[in-house]
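Narrative summary of target 7.
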Amino acid sequence: KPSEQRLGVLPAASSQLLPKAFEGLMKSPASPIIDFYPTDFRVDQEGKRNEWEGVVLVPFVDEERLLRAAASVSRSQLTAEEAKRNELGDMLLFERKVGSTEDFFCASTLPGQFASVQRPDSRCRSLPPPPPLPTSALGFTPHLWPGTEAGAKSPAGFATLATKQVTGEVRSAGVAVFGRPSGKESLIVKVSPMAMDIPSPAETIGRQLVGEKCWVQWPYLQEGLVTGVSDSGALVSRGDGGDLHTRRHSPADADEWAFLNTKLINESVTQQGVEVGAVAVVVHVRVSEGLMRQLDGTVEKRFGKQETRFPMQLALRVNPARDRRLEAALAAGAAVDLPTGSRAVFVGRSYYGCPVTVLPLEGGGFDSTGKRLPAPAGQPLRVQLQPAPPTADAAAQVARRLLTSVTVQFQPSGQIARKLSIDPRTLGKLTGNVVVAIGDEKVDVGLAVKSGRGPLCVPDYTRPAPSGTGWQYSLALATILGQYKAKFPWVFRMLEEHPEEREWDVALAMPDTPPAEATRRAAEVRAWLQKLPLGRRPLVKTSAQVAPEEAVRQLQTMLPPPPKRAPEPVVLD
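Modeled conformation, tokenized:
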């Protein structure tokens, strides 16, 4: 029941979210489940940047004890409304019914943001809840419905490991979890490397694969078009005339191929948890982006413009689970039936996303009675389009101008370190995570604006150096670091005097300070860091394109006012 569920997940500080009668179970020292609500507990901050991201280490809830305690609150202690909220109500079953005019649940509760549903094409029925299961019933049992195909024959869209020969190993590999490398052990899927006992494998395989379809993104299997095959010695692709062309690697090309190959192997582990072993051959693929309907109504697959590199052992020539929905759409290849008066969305370049209404076709002429003749077959649709307000174009122009004029100035880490009169290693540690241990408690006093395992960074404050090694920092971050050093010099002394430590005990930082005072000072640093503007900025991938915060702020103040009336409709053929 709802109250029982809330007793199991809420802390005592949120007891006001339950009926008053349950409050004693969460707060009273005499409560039989008071141990479920400790006020003193540890928070695991490993791999986390903010305190609210930490894992709270509290005791597991004993379900039977919680239910017995909840049952001690009688219905007479609850108001009529509280009692009703704690009972199962009727189920609402929505069924498709074309042409239905039922208005049940169709009125918008936020009319200022969302319009009411005018044509639901459905009906809603109220059904009593199912009876409780008998005590002897198992309830949910984990089994597949008879006839369900699994493994390599799984339906399209259902990932499976059965399309490759794999093994597994549990180990710590820094696999990315929610965008950050995990410090825990992970199950790593190991795919056997492909034996390549032939000379120049790229040439042999390229003649068979280039221009053909394959399936990548294993184990999810996304269709792609092979545009090239490469190994350590050559790249096979099609030239401008469409003929196969083999380009031998220069020494610089070979070094770059080896570098990208190592990066591909490492990212397979850290991003997907898949170990591919040695990669002798790489396939270059333009990944499918879906289906696209042409102006004549035909449907064709569309492949991305950018090439993506995949290890040969993670590509399949044939997908055992054919997506018959795509095949049916491609086979149909007919124009969409949009009769006069139909509403649609325009996806052309000039008015992308604008609503349109289909108009009668013209050009067929009239017969002797004055009746319009049908338009010739294959004639494009004629639509009336409602353009977007002109503020959209004006805002886009302002945004483009701001993005090119507002820039963030960065300087090399060594230059920033000299300005602050600190060791470059100290700068590197401070801009990451600096964990200070105070007894059993750990406090992170680092700025956490970068992470080398992602790699991740906080835009506007840091970015990778163009050379590919090291970091650069903005003048805004240099100012914050100067304030940090002036306000809490003991943190800088600790890092300068003990540069080899990975976790600093508070005794190293403040050897002559009582533990209580040391704890207070560390908490003071943490509170100051959380109030900084950068404390509210998330870490993102270094490859992400993020507008400078100052540009966004200026854009918000420079947006043109909304128009006083909507623009006139436009008729398009």
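The first strand starts at residue 42 and ends at 44.
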